[in-house]
Write a structure and sequence with these properties.
It is a single chain. Strands 1, 2, 3, 4, 5 and 6 form a 6-stranded mixed sheet that branches. It is built from 6 helices and 6 strands, in the order βαβαββαβαβαα. The protein is an alpha/beta fold. β3 and β4 form a beta hairpin. α1 crosses α5.
Amino acid sequence: MTTNLKPQGYEGLKAVFFNGTLKPSPQLSNTDGLIRISRAIMEKQGVSTTLIRTVDHDIASGVYPDMREHGWATDEWPDLYPAVREADIVVVAGPIWLGDNSSQTKKLIERLYAHSGELNSQGQWAFYPKVGGCLITGNEDGIKHCSMNVLYSLQHVGFTIPPQADAGWIGPVGPGPSYLDEGSGGPESDFTNRNTTFMTWNLLHMAKILRDAGGIPDYGNLPAEWKAGTRFDFENPEYR
């Protein structure tokens, strides 16, 4: 049975989009063109969205929450991280360079990893109640490779990944127009527009499901309980 009734109840959700472009503002970012599609859908549902272009900020490299405590003179990441902490949805977006994610995207993932050992209010890893997605742009091959890396990384540190949580656009192999260049066909691509729309709604659906359920159930995934000796039905064959 199919339905065309739009579901309700996404008001109050928060989403943060990270753009891993190498171009500082106000330079035109093709990745921003794809982000705008997803943000517009979310905002129509009452979702509060934030966009952070990482290259505009002095984010230190490293895998600690505040790299000023590890030899760096400056680090803006501690000022940016609250947007992640408060978000229900985190979308990592960026361009393809040499068939891989940009250095800005990789730096972001490393800084997210820095918080992977922290706990949420239920005693689970900090990112457990959050949903992750991915948007990729470029004019060479590599969307699936880049998305695979991002989505694996997000789920590894605790994000929930819904079905079809990635979308992207690439032009023909070799030098050619980028997504927002005149005549590229990017904004008119039905395949890209469909996948971006599906991704956005799946992020919304999963975030709402988790919010309504109070997050991921905490049985079987509490680090402190495991350390204290609770084994959540795990049986060690050596003691049978």
